Amino acid sequence: MTFKSSDNHLDSAKALDQDDALNSFRNKFNFPKAPEGADSLYFCGHSLGLMPKDARTAINTELDSWSTYGVEGHFDGPYPWLPYHENITKSFAHIVGAKETEVVAMNTLTVNLHLMMVSFYRPTKARYKILIENNTFPSDQYAVDSQTRFHGFDYEDAIVELKPREGRKTVDQEDILDQIAELGDSLALVMLGNCNYLSGQCFDISSVAIKAHEVGALCGFNLAHGAGNLLLNLHEDNVDFAVWCSYKYLNSGPGGLAGAFVHEKHLAQSDIPRFEGWWGNNKTTRFEMRRRFDPIPTAEAWQLSNPPIFQLASLKASMNIFDEATMPRIRAKGDKLTSYLEWLLKENCADLLDVTTPKYCPDKQTRGSMLCLKMKGDPKPLVETFGKKGVLLDFREPDILRICPAPLYNSFEDCFKLIQIIKDSV
Ligand SMILES: Cc1ncc(COP(=O)(O)O)c(C=O)c1O
Fold first, then answer.
1. Cα 82 to ligand 1 centroid, rounded to whole Å
2. Beta strands in 26-109 (DSSP E)
3. Which architecture, in CATH terms, is 61-322?
4. In the CATH scheme, what architecture does the domain 5-30+326-424 have?
5. Is 272's pLDDT higher than 80?
6. Mean pLDDT across 243-252
């Protein structure tokens, strides 16, 4: 993706916006206000996505059902609550590249990660290791550590961390495959984040899954930063399981419902270990309150409780937007927008910041929309300026900025304005 020196101009940013087929989607979201009352420059979609305007109506609809029907809201009203989570299934399946039977909206992310590991981390004395990234999100680290301890292993021995080579910013894909091969018979599970939350690096899911299976291990992905951001094909890529949250790129609101994927090949296994609850039970007999669990023959069998309807309602409002925009169009705009921001940074602020995230590559997915930057000098003055100017992006101690131009609501003009603020601050 190439830009020319004339693109380093507000008029050019505006022209790129005019050319953008998704430009009008921005109007479907509420932007927080900057100190002077204008819309803020919001680049935090990798942390908490903006509120779809329709989320309020969707939640109010369910409040109305509650006030009108009381308990009968489970069966009555515009969207009965009993099957409410099914309103999300089709959209989730499109977003992660799965069959509808393979996905479910339930719980929250770390909860789902544990539930999946109950089923897919089944260590033996000889095969008990888990391969993760060395800079994975702390909750993922705690989850895998505690799972190995739960099974009686020493996590220092059981957890193997992938590191970038000396002098490299990100992990080489071939090093992941080599590490899997090296761990061989001792490896129980590969559990990677896609994209990595701190570098924005995207791994090649298919080759990781092939290699993991070759050595007899299983393979799961945390798609907290992938769902609604990357083009995913979990079924075809033969991933065993995946989990994701919906409050980042999927704009469902704080603490929004998470997702889980279980590959079809595992759904028919009657002896799969699983923590179970009544919402995973056969829908036709659930209310007969039978003594024995009869699993739904889909990923829904992993559900435990009846889900929070207000959270599902805001998620549904967001899913309507994804259904209309579609992932291929979102990723295509994301690639152009992120490349534009990266190019502007290099043109205007190369002496201030270093981009850690891998470069865009036309024939393979190397990153999504988030750019991770390492500040070369003291980051504090710039971070303070952002606060004063109504710029919302993410600073991680000691020197990392994460900027996410979200294709559904950020514009080329937003990117241009951000760069001017960074330039003017020094
Ligand atoms: C990669 C990753 N894993 C896990 C979590 C924790 O998510 P939750 O609090 O929804 O369990 C986050 C949250 O930002 C995350 O980015």
1. 27
2. 29-30, 41-42, 51-52, 103-105
3. 3-Layer(aba) Sandwich (3.40)
4. Alpha-Beta Complex (3.90)
5. yes
6. 98
Can you say whether residue 152 is alpha, beta or left, with left for phi > 0 and alpha for psi between -120 and 50 degrees? Answer: left
* 68: exposed, middle or buried (Cβ count in 10 Å: 0-12, 13-18, 19+): exposed
Q: What pLDDT, on the 0 to 100 scale, is given for residue 362?
A: 93
Output the residue whose Cα is nearest ligand 1's atom 16: 224
* Rounded CA separation 264/299 (Å): 8
Q: Is residue 34 helix, strand or coil?
A: coil
For ligand 1, residues with CB inside 6 Å are 108-110, 137, 139-140, 193, 197, 222, 224-225, 245
* Cα maximum dimension of the chain: 71
User: Which DSSP string corresponds to 323-384?
Assistant: HHH-HHHHHHHHHHHHHHHHHHHHHHHTTTEEE-SPPP-TTS--B-S-EEEEESS--HHHHH
Query: What confidence tier does 14 reach under pLDDT thresholds 50, 70, 90?
Result: very high
- Given a cut of 80, is residue 426 above it in pLDDT? no
Q: Residue 124 CA to chain centroid, in angstroms? A: 31
- The pLDDT tens digits for 321-340 are 999 999 999 999 999 999 99
CA of 108 to the centre of ligand 1 (A): 9
Among 410, 412, 408, 416, CA closest to 22:
408
Q: Does residue 379 have a pLDDT over 80?
A: yes
pLDDT given for residue 295 in this prediction: 96
- Enter the pTM of the model: 0.97
pLDDT of residue 114: 98
Q: What is the mean pLDDT of the chain?
A: 96
Contact assessment for residue 383 and residue 403, using Cβ atoms and an 8 Å cutoff: no
pLDDT of 81 strictly over 90: yes
User: Using an 8 Å Cβ cutoff, are 46 and 249 in contact?
Assistant: yes
Whose C-alpha lies nearest to ligand 1, atom 7?
A: 109
Cα–Cα distance for residue pair 337/412, rounded to 1 Å: 6
3-class secondary-structure state, position 132? strand
The Å distance, Cα 75 to ligand 1 centre, comes to 33
Distance 185 CA to ligand 1 centre (A): 30
**Which of 197, 229, 246 for mutating ligand 1's site (highest number of atoms within 8 Å of CB)?**
197
* Per-domain residue ranges of the chain: 5-30+326-424, 61-322
pLDDT at site 130: 98
- pLDDT for res 258: 98
Q: Give strand pairing partners of 52.
A: 29
Residues 271, 112, 177, CA angle at the centre, nearest 5°? Answer: 80
